[in-house]
Amino acid sequence: MGGAIGFIKCLMFFFNFLIFLGGLCLLGTGAWITANPDGFKYLVSSHPLIYTGATIILVVGLILFLVGFLGCWGAISESKCLIMTCFFVISIPHLFPDLFRLSPWRVILSQIKTENFLTELKSKYKGENSKDVFSKTWDTIMIAFSCCGVTGPDDFMNVTALRKLPPSKRVPLTCCKRSDTGKILNKKECLLGNPNFRNDQGCYRVLVGHFMKYIHIIGICTLSVLLVEFFAMGFAICLYWKF
């Protein structure tokens, strides 16, 4: 019997340690996003979508970190109080799934609208030569994903900082198609609006498409977390009745 209890203790420690590590990773990621010294924190604070996502990552990471720590400590110290506390905390998301599964994502999804991104682009984009974080981030996204604006190049016609420029120069060069080495294929034709040398697809659709490609990975990670939590709950109950 003693060997069986010791084995259950090891398993409970192992699964709670996985939860602990997952929480630590999320906590570190959230902290890095909100406190990055390169200026990313200013983009986070100015954009409600990124700020909400970073906050959720921090909160979830902190909860998982504490739950994993309590579970590991409870298994080592053989404390019924800690084990039962760990069990109840882990079981809360399963008792109220709608609260934890839908509410945070409703907040985020309510902000994932083209109108919100268009408003941000119109008021904050300063051009491809600007040094502010918002403009550089948009330029990086447009080059990396071969897209232009939120819905297309016409979005830059209404950008406040570019209104003094002639229409042919309002679309930034970061919308131009590039070679594998990163060089613009044809600057002149790009500025003339030739679709063979300019990316006419908006970044919103491109980014959503990339997200949908990898959504199955999110599902696998979610199922893995649920499986680990169920094992941790089961071993917590076993240890509670054995101690």
Automatic annotation (TrEMBL):
PANTHER family (alphabetical): TETRASPANIN
Membrane topology type: Multi-pass membrane protein
GO cellular component terms, A-Z: plasma membrane
Presence of keyword Glycoprotein: yes
Alphabetized Pfam families for the sequence: Tetraspanin
Cited InterPro entries: Tetraspanin/Peripherin (IPR018499), Tetraspanin_animals (IPR000301), Tetraspanin_CS (IPR018503), Tetraspanin_EC2_sf (IPR008952)
Keyword terms: Glycoprotein, Membrane, Transmembrane, Transmembrane helix
Record protein name field: Tetraspanin
Superkingdom as given in the UniProt entry: Eukaryota
Similarity remark: Belongs to the tetraspanin (TM4SF) family.
Cell compartment(s), UniProt: Membrane
